[in-house]
Task: inverse folding
């Protein structure tokens, strides 16, 4: 029943889970310091800028569904952006390519406006469906940007070739842009075209950093230690390989 | 119940898929769950389409962006009509059917047009990125110029070696660093969701 060749992976997952539990417990009694993430710190300012300009904010998650981890992480950022938009009484626009993401986002945005005490400012028309076609979506979002001229654009999620089309159009209408993705192929485009970028794991840590909840902060600290462990393992593996000892078979799952 | 039900469901299914990765007999159920997701997704598409049509009908009522909404509704119902007609003719996916004509002569060129815009956007983004404002921008410009020279026929011989080095060593190292971070971040987020610490999918 159990696939013995995957024992190594199981051990790694168990070790990571133990590390997470240790840091989560530690975070409840001790303050956790995380480095500043400029892209997250700029979220509130970006919405504020849109308010000053009298323009709406636009939030896009790309063409993938909620089974993508980056889109799931984007929902945490969406909550914060929608709350700030409600507080500053700014219009909110969210075109979607996936109907499940749309339905989830409608609920999150509605709740964010309710918690800010302004449920009257939001309607279901603010979070709407465009198309699941990649370039149809890009054309639709571009059209919304050119007509509504948002003051702040948040491109948070997973993107493909449409990333630069969206970012450059937002730049052309003078919007401040905060992008975030785990797609390494699209990150260079965002870095070039956007004001702030959440690079890879920064995006996945957004919920923890924004909420400052000890449990979540502890898990981020555990990730950092796991990263240090992996870096150490790679170093040891390289040194051992020089002396003819190969650790690669340990990681083989086939 | 509104919050607890979905939370318990997501934890149970998440754990099931994790265990199925290690225990082969459970993998059949994993496939079934993925199939369910596809079916739910198909129904959700109907919700999306209703939202799309409602939103454009609302535009027409309010007199906002009327030409765009008219084009969309015409395109939507026109394609639907052509599709139903072709379906009853029994040749919906025949290369010469009206539906495939719409696909080949309307949708595909529109998609190609949007994709080709990328070339112009690349040029404008590169123009901004390569302005030398600081040391990092200078390094970016130098690396980009060398890689471009290494990829064109006239200068390929001279710059091929250093281009390969830039792509395979500093570029790949940075990408792998980000990918390891993303993988760990994904595991972290998965664990947070499984432990119920983070529930981004719930209100």
Result:
């Amino acid at each position: 029943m159990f696939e013995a060749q995957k024992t190594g992976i199981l051990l790694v997952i168990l070790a990571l889970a133990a590390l997470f539990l240790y840091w989560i417990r530690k975070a409840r009694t001790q303050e956790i310091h995380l480095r500043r993430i400029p892209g997250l710190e700029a979220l509130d300012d970006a919405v504020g800028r849109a308010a000053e300009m009298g323009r709406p904010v636009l939030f896009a998650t790309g063409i993938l569904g909620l089974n993508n981890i980056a889109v799931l992480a984007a929902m945490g950022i969406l909550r914060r952006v929608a709350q700030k938009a409600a507080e500053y009484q700014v219009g909110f626009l969210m075109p979607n390519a996936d109907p499940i993401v749309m339905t989830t986002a409608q609920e999150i945005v509605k709740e964010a406006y309710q918690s800010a005490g302004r449920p009257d400012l939001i309607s279901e028309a603010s979070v709407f469906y465009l198309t699941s076609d990649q370039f149809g979506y890009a054309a639709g979002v571009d059209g919304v940007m050119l007509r509504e001229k948002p003051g702040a654009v948040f491109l948070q999620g997973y993107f493909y070739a449409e990333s630069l089309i969206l970012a450059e159009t937002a730049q052309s209408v003078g919007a401040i842009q905060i992008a975030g993705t785990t797609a390494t192929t699209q990150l260079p485009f965002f870095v070039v075209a956007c004001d702030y970028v959440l690079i890879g794991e920064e995006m996945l840590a957004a919920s923890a950093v924004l909420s400052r909840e000890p449990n979540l902060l502890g898990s981020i600290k555990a990730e950092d230690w796991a990263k240090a462990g992996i870096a150490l393992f790679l170093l040891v593996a390289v040194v051992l390989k020089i002396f003819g000892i190969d650790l690669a078979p340990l990681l083989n799952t086939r | 119940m509104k919050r607890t039900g979905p939370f318990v469901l997501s934890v149970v299914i998440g754990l099931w898929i994790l265990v199925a990765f290690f225990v082969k007999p459970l993998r059949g159920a994993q496939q079934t769950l993925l199939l369910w997701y596809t079916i739910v997704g198909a129904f959700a598409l109907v919700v999306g389409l209703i939202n799309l049509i409602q939103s454009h009908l609302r535009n027409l009522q309010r007199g906002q962006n009327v030409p765009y909404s008219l084009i969309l509704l015409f395109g939507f119902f026109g394609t639907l009509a052509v599709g139903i007609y072709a379906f009853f003719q029994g040749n919906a996916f025949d290369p010469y059917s009206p539906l495939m004509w719409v696909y080949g002569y309307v949708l595909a060129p529109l998609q190609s047009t949007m994709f080709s815009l990328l070339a112009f956007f690349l040029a404008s983004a590169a123009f901004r990125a390569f302005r030398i404002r600081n040391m990092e921008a200078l390094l970016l410009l130098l690396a980009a110029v060398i890689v471009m020279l290494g990829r064109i026929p006239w200068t390929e011989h001279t710059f091929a070696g250093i281009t390969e080095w830039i792509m395979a060593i500093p570029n790949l190292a940075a990408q792998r660093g980000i990918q390891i971070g993303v993988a760990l971040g994904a595991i972290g987020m998965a664990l947070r969701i499984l432990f119920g610490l983070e529930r981004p999918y719930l209100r």
Remarks:
- The CA atoms of residues 48 and 191 of chain B lie 31 Å apart.
- Residues 130-196 of chain B form one domain.
- The helical segments of chain B are 4-22, 27-62, 66-89, 98-129, 135-149, 156-194.
